[in-house]
Amino acid sequence: MIAPDLDCGIAALRNLIADARKVVPFTGAGISTECGIPDFRSPGGLWTRNRPIPFDEFLARQEMRDESWRRRFAMEENFGGAKPGRGHTALASLYRAGKILALITQNIDNLHQASGIAAQHIIELHGNTTYAVCLDCRERYELPWVKEQFAASGGRAPDCRCGGYIKTATVSFGQAMPAEAMQRAEAAAKTCDLFLAVGSSLVVWPAAGFPLMAKQHGASLVIVNREPTGLDAYADMVLRHDIGDVLEPFIEA
């Protein structure tokens, strides 16, 4: 059902949240666009300007590793100063109220953590771009150190002390989805009363399977997205409005 108007949709969502014991939000790029972070896939998005670098190319070629880090540091103007928006803040309010025990996100921007949701309760399906890891020994590296080494070497991606390749802690095309995160997301989807999909086109699989999984296990499914999604037909309610406008009333006073 598509909510007839914004006010009716907010009222209905408020009732669903009040009745739910466990709400699981599932967030995509749309929740962060008002924060100044552009969508990757939409027209004019980052991937329309630069072809994504597949994981196998990152592993195979030094110049691809160099280019990957060059792009990451060029994106600082998008990610560096971003602050949580109204959607993030509203979900953090519901988290503090005890309604949200786990949040699933496709985003890599760390804004849910910045909004006040504990990192251990955030399930990052596509990783996190605010730090890096060695692909071999999994040692963590902070971006200022990587940037310093990158600049000092004239634009060459640094390697780990173990000899492994250092990469942002994100999931690239062709890279395996994180098994632990997928397992946690499945468990959350199967045990919630309300699955709240926010700002996702719901076309990227296997992540897009979690809303259906929740629905199949008895949860209500609500989709908040300005554009139609691939799963609108399965939702109990669809709110095609600005995400911040929909969720702002849920920000605690």
Describe what this molecule looks like in 3D.
This protein is α/β, with parallel strands linked by helices and 253 residues long. The chain folds into two domains: 1-35 and 84-126 and 177-253, Rossmann fold (3-Layer(aba) Sandwich), CATH 3.40.50; 38-81 and 134-170, 2-Layer Sandwich (SIR2/SIRT2 'Small Domain'). 37% of the residues lie in helices and 16% in strands. It is built from eleven helices and nine strands. The strands form two sheets. It has a six-stranded parallel beta sheet, with helices on both faces. α9 runs parallel beside α10 (209-216). The chain is elongated and about 55 Å long. The chain starts with 5 loop residues before the first helix and ends in a 6-residue tail after the last helix. The model has no long low-confidence stretch (mean pLDDT 92).
Keywords summarizing the entry:
3-stranded antiparallel beta sheet; 253 residues; SIR2/SIRT2 'Small Domain'; alpha/beta; Rossmann fold
Kindly summarize this structure in a few lines:
The chain is built from eleven helices and nine strands. By secondary structure, the protein is α/β, with parallel strands linked by helices.
What separation lies between the terminal Cα atoms? 30 Å
Structural class: alpha/beta
Radius of gyration: 19 Å
State the CATH architecture of the largest domain.
3-Layer(aba) Sandwich
The strand count comes to: 9
Task: Map the helices and strands.
Blueprint lengths: L5 H14 L3 E5 L18 H4 L5 H6 L1 H13 L1 H4 L6 H11 L6 E3 L5 H5 L6 E3 L2 E8 L5 E3 H10 L13 E5 L8 H13 L2 E5 L10 H8 L3 E5 L12 E3 L3 H5 L6
Helix pairs in contact: 9-10
